[in-house]
Amino acid sequence: MFCDFILLNMSLLRKKPSVLGAVAIYCTNKILDKKPWSADMVKCSGGIKEQELKPLANELFYYIKKLESSSLKTMFRKYENAQYLEVAKVLSKIEMPQPI
Prior knowledge:
Blueprint: H1 2-6, H2 10-13, H3 17-31, H4 39-44, H5 50-68, H6 74-78
Helix pairs in contact: 3-5
């Protein structure tokens, strides 16, 4: 789900694909109340550190929350379907970060 939202955000699309994948993992772990990023993930990602991901994750969360209150509901409806395990429900766990 986060990867789809990343594709809608031009500033995030300017980042390396490896960083975007790491941001999606970071955001997923944060939503699931798991440790968002560990030393093993730094090693597996080629050295991407949490300090690099945190502002990008906040940007993504901010963007998602802005879209949630807009008229562009297609992406949200997609992830409300049982076919996608109704993962849109986890979006309520996202706290609104400060604007970027």
